[in-house]
Amino acid sequence: MKVLIVESNPDLGLLWQRHLERMGAEVSLVHSQEAAILALYGVDFDILVLDLVLDQGSALAVADFASYRRPEARVIFVTNTSFFSDGSIFAHSANACAYVQSETPPEDLAAMVEHYAALR
Question: For the chain: N or C, fewer Cβ within 10 A?
Fold first, then answer.
């Protein structure tokens, strides 16, 4: 299972990365739209864990590029805001499979990643 984490907070991204690697996933961690796009050029990711509010760039642009470059890859959006709390993220991003809060326990997020990556 190949996972791309796009998270502006390095500590949070590293926490998620460690949990996923313990499950046997190959994980790439980046912190910006530009780095995510570059990663998507080189690796066929099964799933992306994507912070909806990036410090550098747009999460929706990353998801859109992923749907073009890696159409089979699913996206789990995470956020610490109320943006798209009505579920409309699924109307804006065809490859979205889940929408969770950043405070979701890392083991729960890892289980979701494993579940949705297996559906690929």
Answer: C
